[in-house]
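for the record, two folds in this file. i put them one after another cuz i was lazy. first one right below, seq on top, structure tokens after. the second one comes after a little note so u can tell where it starts
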Amino acid sequence: MEIGKNNWAIAEGYIPKESHGKFPELESHETVCMLNAGDSPANVEIMIYFSDREPLGPFHEVVEARRTKHLRFNSLEIPKGKDFASTIKSDVPIVVQHTRLDSRQAENALMTTIAYAQN
């Protein structure tokens, strides 16, 4: 079953410098969640954009057929404490969701939203 789009954007991104709680589970992070419900692997390219410097990337990921992949932006070369945005391009349709865990204090905050899709 093919669902989704090939081009996605997440206009909001921020990885806090501080975290509270058990590492790595409660480390403050941003995550791009990708669903490939199709029958072919998705070859994904991620670009990271900033307000005050040139973009980072492309970063390449594969989301296998009929699988999901949750990639923490923390694993990329993104500096903590800086606003950023991202684009996600795939050679097959996928669904993209954005999640943030902000654990700067003991009372954690979790936020999630579907990314902007454009084909």
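(here's the note) second protein begins now
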Amino acid sequence: MAEHAYIKLVPGSTLEVVQLDDIKELFHYYKSITGKTGTQLDWNYSDKAFPYEIIEHKADADYIHLKATEDRYHSIFLGIGKEYVKGTEGLPAFQHYIELILPGISTYGDKGKANEFSKFLAKKLKGELHLFNKRIMYFNLMK
């Protein structure tokens, strides 16, 4: 059975609307900083920190497929969406989010990496992270 985590872009987030290109850009940034860490350690850390290749699907639905390049991992899917919430003045408003999906064939390694990636994305976007275990982490400055 698939598991889901969400990064919700709340008021105070760095972006109000997120696109797949923004997510890909953040993953490329993640790969570059882990590559620098690997250079300092004299070890190919970026391949172990991000053991996936990014495949973008735009045919029927917009989502990113992180397909594993290592044997202990399988795949993670990331999609974007929006939902109605109550706005600041009680009026309905759209709230955009990123959804991380672990299909039923995902491994424990995929779940660990998905947790790591979701925390990284939520911290960079200053969003509200709803984890796979239904707990919530806040990375935005609440007023």
